[in-house]
């Protein structure tokens, strides 16, 4: 319903901000990291938003980047993960680190997040990896053979592609970005960071 909200920052609370848009104050729940980074009261700000609707709760959640929003949406798709848990996770891990933990089966990292036990961490990995495999299969079917050969021979690039897919980017966009980075001998984390920079332009 709301893709983003842009206006004057009127208030910063412990887990929310209020943004004034033409005399209407929107209360938007955000992660601690985003609240700290959004700016000072009185400044003009822009946040990407998720309109959260449940029988007993209608709320707006805000994010400073599309990557955070995509991670939030992915977490909501996992059974047993609600909006408050997802925001709490965003306060304690970056989208790229989260993606890397999922694709590398790093239960320990996910288990270290507030409110996430071993079973929940395993469920997050299982459910998001299944979703990733489906998206990857559909993307590969439509990809050019040359791109597949050049990219998938590099294991680091392959893992970075999977991480970027988890963050919601489509396969065609990622392939173009990886073509520019595949010869740089970068680590998986460096590829993810540089890939995000290219994709967000």
Distinctive features:
alpha+beta, 53% helix, OB fold (Dihydrolipoamide Acetyltransferase, E2P), five-stranded mixed beta barrel, 201 residues
User: What percent of residues are in strands?
Assistant: 15-25%
Q: What is the CA–CA distance across the termini?
A: 24 Å
Mind telling me the C-alpha Rg? 18 Å
> Shape, please?
globular
Strand order of the largest sheet: 1-2-3-5-4
- In terms of structural class, how would the helical and strand content be classed? alpha+beta
Amount of helix: 40-55%
- Biggest sheet overview: 5 strands, mixed, barrel
Number of strands: 5
Describe this structure in words.
With 201 residues, the protein is α+β, with helices and mostly antiparallel strands. Among the domains are: 1-64, OB fold (Dihydrolipoamide Acetyltransferase, E2P), CATH 2.40.50; 133-199. It contains ten helices and five strands; from the N terminus they run βββαββααααααααα. It has helices spanning 32-37, 66-76, 83-90, 95-103, 107-111, 118-141, 145-152, 155-166, 171-181, 188-199; strands spanning 4-12, 16-21, 24-29, 44-54, 57-63.
């Amino acid at each position: 319903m709301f893709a983003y909200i842009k206006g004057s920052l009127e208030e910063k609370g412990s887990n929310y901000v209020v943004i004034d848009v033409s005399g209407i104050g929107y209360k938007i729940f955000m992660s601690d990291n985003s609240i700290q980074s959004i700016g000072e009261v009185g400044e003009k700000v822009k946040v990407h938003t998720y309109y959260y609707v449940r029988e007993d709760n209608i709320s707006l959640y805000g994010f400073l980047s599309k990557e955070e929003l995509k991670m939030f949406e992915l977490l909501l798709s996992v059974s047993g993960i609600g909006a408050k848990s997802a925001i709490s996770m965003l306060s304690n891990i970056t989208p790229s680190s989260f993606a890397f933990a999922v694709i590398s089966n790093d239960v320990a990292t996910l288990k270290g997040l507030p409110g996430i036990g071993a079973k929940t961490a395993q469920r997050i990995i299982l459910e998001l990896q299944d979703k990733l495999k489906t998206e990857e299969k559909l993307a590969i079917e439509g990809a050019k053979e040359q791109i597949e050969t050049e990219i998938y021979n590099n294991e680091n690039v392959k893992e970075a592609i999977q991480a970027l897919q988890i963050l919601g980017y489509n396969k065609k966009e990622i392939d173009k970005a990886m073509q520019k980075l595949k010869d740089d001998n970068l680590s998986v984390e460096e590829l993810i960071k540089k890939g995000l920079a290219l994709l967000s332009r």
